[in-house]
Queue: 2 jobs
Job 1
Amino acid sequence: MLLLRGGDNLSCRAALRLEEVFTLDDPTGTLQTVWKVKEQLRVLLRTGSLEDAAEAKKILEELVKAADRPETNRLYRTVCRWWKEIEVLIVTGATTGKVEANNTAIKNIKRTARGYRNAANCKSVILLRSAVRTAA
């Protein structure tokens, strides 16, 4: 779980534990290199300008070449393939996060709504829950 957390969100104690893992359990340095690729991708997606994003992409490419793993190569190809969309994200900051959250909430309601005998009641619950989420 420590490897999945963002490097900037690690406490001092967690950062020390992570360094310990890299030192003791990663003699080849592969794990640390792959972790750096993940962190650089996070940096790239948080940039505020296209110039910063291009620089972060260049650094990501260097890290991917250093990692020399099929998974990181595939990740970099995906970033290159989606580069126009990533640029739109950086410029506008628009995501589909709210839509995805609403879809997940509706699916959860439908899973628990098997007790409803009336389809109109089930639809009402979905609409009410959705209205509460958008009002908040």
Job 2
Amino acid sequence: MPVKGIDYLRLGRIHLRIYEEHRDCLTGAEDARLRKAAVERVRAASGFLDTLLAAACGSDPRPDTVFVDRLAAAVPLVPFLGYLYFEVLSEYLMLHSTSPQTRAYAEAGEMNNRLYKQLAFSAVESMHRLFDLALFAPGHDRLVGLIGEIEPALAPGVASYVHRRLPHLFACTALDASRDAAAVSFKDADFLTLARIAPYLLGQMVFREMRTESRYPRLFPVFEQAKALQAYDYWNREGIPTPFNGFLPKGEIGVNLAYPHGSYAVWTAEVCERGLLHPVDQLDVTFIPRLTDLRATALGKAAFPTTHEPAAH
């Protein structure tokens, strides 16, 4: 089977298109608030976003320390930057680690994905309750300390790597492919302008704002099922029964619930003293390509703990 994932960093245009197709499911006030909030956040961070584009074009003389601190300060305004920041660091750790553990994994043909997990849980105290990378925003000194705790030899070069890599990743995952990064500015941009020049960024912003709506538990099936069906179609077209999230296989594999040629067996298991899993009982389970009720997910429990929805019939 092909090793091919779906890079969630590049789903912004899909988020935007699904929003535009189903925005009539929002009230007028909800729609107006969502659009206004997305634009205002981009405008508030426009100075740094323009800096990212300049750096992607090779023009950013600021020290690495300043760049990382400005990045950390911009994440609360543009949460998508937290995801980019984390993925860049995940790359850095997995591709540059030379620890004995990493070497052992490499000999087995695997990447050391424990590294980025350690980073995430160390950087954000609440990550064990909800894996929310919008909260991932360590400043320079904190970043160097975190990397030093994971693998000391990688700490000195981490800020430089972030400064060189993240601007290019931002340009690729934010702008329309036809746009010249050197000719784009986010200053004073309105919704329609952003939809033209940076549909991927705008889609991520709209998606994030929608998730903060009090009615999101009711809107969740409307907007997310449409995206899920597109994902199923893509996986089946490419012949992928076990997809992963990202362009770099990081040890997080899912199951394509709509795969037409698959059969599955589900077991309970016990963990032995060596940390290995041993099957115990096979379960009678049928996979259905349908969204889980939001209330049963980590997002639903963390973001909407008091939401009481009527039972679905």
